[in-house]
Amino acid sequence: MNPEISRVKDLLFEEMELALATTCSLLPMIREDQWDYRPRDDMRSLIELARHLAHVPAQELAILQEQSKEQVGKLVMSISRLRDAEALSEVMRDGVLALKEYMNSLDEKELLYRSTAPFFAKHQPVVQFKWLMEITTHLYHHRGQMFTYMKQLGIPVSMRDLYGPASNSWTL
């Protein structure tokens, strides 16, 4: 594989690993009595959001591999009762590992040009590399949502929880 393409893929994986590590450190900060918090009636509860975030890698992998709506639905339902931070973290770790294995199995041409379409948008195929970018941004979107929910609940979270020790030196 072209070294530049491989480097960009590795950088996306680094970002995904950071999202994984920080999500796994945020989840245990949530108390059992806080899981049902819902900022508005038309939004997910904290536990629903945490489940979705933890499942993004595996769920998106199933979608990009063109699994059916029924197959993806079964996958989603498989964690619908989880309420434990460690179990949710394990789901996310397993999903990231499976996604990385899949993406690393692709050669350069497949990564850049092979298109797959989700069951809900068969007329809109997406190349594998773009899927990787979308999944990474999807993780950060929901991690940011979870961080905001936690702030609203008064859980003492900070930029360090999102970006690690390097954020201590950041100023605006």
From TrEMBL:
So which domain of life are we looking at? Bacteria
UniProt keywords (A-Z) are: Metal-binding
Report a single Gene Ontology molecular function: metal ion binding
Q: Looking at the keywords, is Cytoplasm present? A: no
* InterPro entries hit by this protein: DinB, DinB/YfiT-like
Q: Where is the signal peptide?
A: none
Q: Which residues bind a divalent metal cation?
A: 52, 138, 142
Any matching Pfam family? DinB
Q: Which family does it belong to?
A: Belongs to the DinB family.
Protein name in UniProt: DinB family protein
UniProt source species: Cohnella zeiphila
